[in-house]
Amino acid sequence: MNATREPLQRVQATGGKSRETSDSTGMRRSRAASAAAVRGGLILAAILVMGWLLILPLAVVIGEALKLGVRAYLDAIRSPETVAAMKLTALVVAVTLPVNVLFGLAAGWAIGKFRFPGRSVLVTLLDLPFAVSPVVAGMLFVFLYGRTGLFGPWLFDHNLKVIFAVPGVVLATLFVTLPFVAREVIPLMESAGNEEEEAARVLGAGFWPIFFRVTLPNVKWALLYGSLLAAARAVGEFGAVSVVSGHIRGETNTLPLHIEILYNEYQFQPAFAVASLLSLFAVISLALHVLLEKKRLTGTAKRGLA
Amino acid sequence: MILKPRTLFSILALLTAIAPGASFAQTYPAVTLLNVSYDPTRELYRDVNLAFQKKWLSEKGQTIEIRQSHGGSGKQARSVIDGLEADVVTLALAHDIDMIAEKSGLIFRNWQKRLPRNSSPYTSTIVFVVRNGNPKGIHDWADLARPGISVITPNPKTSGGARWNYLAAWGATLKAGKTESDAKALLASIFKNAPVLDTGARGSTMTFVERKMGDVLIAWENEALMAKELPGGSGLEIVVPPRSILAEPAVALVDAVVEKRKTRAQAEAYLNFLYSKEGQELAARHHFRPGDPEVMARYAAKFPKTGLFTIDQVFGGWAAATKKHFADGGIFDEISRK
Question: When you count CB atoms within 10 A of the terminal residue's CB, does the N or C end of chain A come out lower?
Fold first, then answer.
């Protein structure tokens, strides 16, 4: 019981931390000057590290992408193989995201609202994709669906291609993105408790109306936030997908794999042009991320007060 | 709320229902071939595929699409064993194709006898790339072992190309009439001179050409010639050592796959096309040594004559060489510990 409560406590602790620190510095004014110096130093260090590790590489990507002009940039992005990679990446997201949402909601609902034997095992298992290296995840799929794997012979007899084809790429991405939505939804489901649902039931609402009007609105921001994280990972996943893709040009290469291929072919500018697309996606999702984070935290805080 | 949950839910449910079905229904157009190849042949096969498509269309009136997959040769062989449905494999080593035949039975074991010249339509060798004017005066393998020379080569533990480099140095020493302990000392010094060991041949080329590290790069001749054509490669020179190893990339038809997909005729024609004058010409243009004497004669200036030995002659084949030199506790481990 204690172990399963832990994630929730962590969320609350981080939520309250900023207020606590600002209170304590306010109380000790005598040390304010040295504290300010330390704080300034830390902020400067953080900015320098950020600039060096994040801003500089991003600038290089954009600089290299546009090195040969806008025309070359557009040519690289419009090449049939890049378009095929974009389509495949979009397909992967289009499949993994709904599955993640459904699974995340189901898992969040079961784990957050109910106590049952094996619940803590389930919570731990949910983190498995985070604990396993993506390359190992990819190899697991080869062992399962490869020609000599567990299901391989049957699949090959029926001419169903999983590994080294689009389904394998989708499966591998599903595996690595599975925890994102559930991880976000579970703590909220837990902290919301069952009171509102019980009230709704007493007032005569059925299962689905309760779910759509009470349960879902309570977790909607966490759901969107988790979906965003899952989508970002699905777009950017390299390791697991690389193992199961087979690297067939224009067919089983996602954007990250396509970038690697272009780079290995000495096509630096096109490689960076495609990389800039991924960077753009990252920046957009980062902006959404900030927005959702705010919404999500205010949501949590409000419920904390009530 | 941005989206009514009900609407959102039904959209998501619909997508979930449709998408996996769509991705499973993978159908092949009338004729496609999948050529599973290794890294340095990307540019070659792009041209070969176009030429073959054109030829097949004009001769047979059939449109043929050739799909490509590239990667490290050993990894590609592994993928074919695990189910990557290649109609033809065009890999760096006969050994990799032997592995497919042995571990999966997808290729008949006599594959190497089915095509001319041990199923190697084109060959290559290991050469040196140096900076403009060869300022360090590098001409032979012994020069790489001199103190103060910085040598760029990939890691033999991870790279097939690096193994060729290693075996070329070893074999050239023996062929020059020296002993095995001389060869061991030479390689120990060469690896002592290596500031980095990249994981693959392409990585080493990048290190030398783009990052401008090192005095000499040990590389495939085809990679070296291509590196010269890179934007950063104009100031490079190629030095062909007096003795080097003959690299024989091999090609084969994957019997089980062409039977299943009914593509044997096309796959056979495709591999034979590599041996035709046109195919040989394309190989030469993409810096592989053509096996056809007539085409080779036309490119004599590009591919200088040198003393070439094969891996079978000096090492008794790949399996023996791997066991003796690159296996855990082998000679490479021994010299890199020093």
Answer: C
